[in-house]
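Revision sheet: structure tokens.
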Amino acid sequence: MYHFIGIKGSGMSALAQIMKELGYNVQGSDVEKYFFTEDGLHNLNIPILPFDENNIQEGMKIVRGASFHEEHPEVKRAMELDLNIYSYAEMVGSLTRKFKTICVAGCHGKTTTTAMLSHTLNEIKGANYLIGDGTGYASKENEYFVLEACEYRRHFLAYTPDYAIITNIDLDHVDYFKDIDDVISAYEEYANKAEKMIIACGDDPYTHSLDVVKPIFYYGLDDDNDIQATNVQYKKDGISFEVTIEGNYYGFFDLPIYGKHMLLDALAVIATCYYERIEARDLAKSLKTFEGAKRRFQETIIGNNIIIDDYAHHPNEVKATLKAVKQKYPEKRIVTVFQPHTFTRTQEFAQDLINVMSDVEKAYIMDIHPSREKQEDYPEITSDIIINNLPNGEHITMKDASKFENIEDTVIVFMSPNDLSVLENEVIELLENKLNEI
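Predicted:
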């Protein structure tokens, strides 16, 4: 029996689903609050228990989420029983050695790229996958394993990929990485673990500086890329473009995606599938049916208003999301609801967040979600450092749905890696009730 401590974590949930489908006995524990990541666990009848040291029994193998340390009652009990305890990364790393593994890393876009590649490869050839939105699937018969690989604390160095994809390199997780050079060094080490090749975004300012020993192929819009998108058209219903690979025409793609960042994600998928000898016609057909990753630009339409739920929390992600909104809805007003994530990230990127949200009609800012950090360690860092410097900024809480009762012809963009569904659902209900009264 494998017991997952913190089974509702996005990666942990996906891993538990994969282990179950590969034939292992799986259960886990977590807080009793609902998270969207538990839906897949319920579908596979994986038991989810409240945290309790009595969950830990002799003979179990323990998979421990990254947030759970030695003082946690279940971890402590497992250590007392001298059980085998694996980190999430160690457990996933063991799976990467059993399949042809494609790891997708990058400071932004890795979840969407992993989901898109998983969808395509599974539809065309059959593939196992572990996505950071809590989605996991596996069959012993599949050749491929598509894996979202996180750079935080260099977790992705536990993996053994055939293909190492890098969507971009940026400064993030500033509670761990010292500076951008530290981030680059981590990605360089990750890239050099590739057994077959590296596929990297050539439009990124840092990927060309990587010192790698395996072949590296670059994708992007710039002329010096091996895989290049040309004749790109950004439209209200998506993006169309042609692809040339190493100077040769590969195919035409017309996809329901929005923003340059999504185009680059698609190019990473196209590059990988090309080197796996997949025909452009089959690939274009499959990509056209991709419906997106969970909590990535998910839309709810209520009359002439649009609600968008997105995971964006880094300023570059917020910027990319808002550009996608403007592409799809150029005539509508834009209002943001943003929850800063961690004190260190807010401290580091406050001005960048101010810059990217300064031109929307209204920017509602919630209190900072501390995640693994504590407010007492950062007494001067609150969401006010953003709000007070935004001419359109205003504080908002989960109980303030009434702020939206007079919204018309507007896109409301909820952005955070945290669950904002309480406020979001109340806003949706408010707008639906108002629509029904007309």
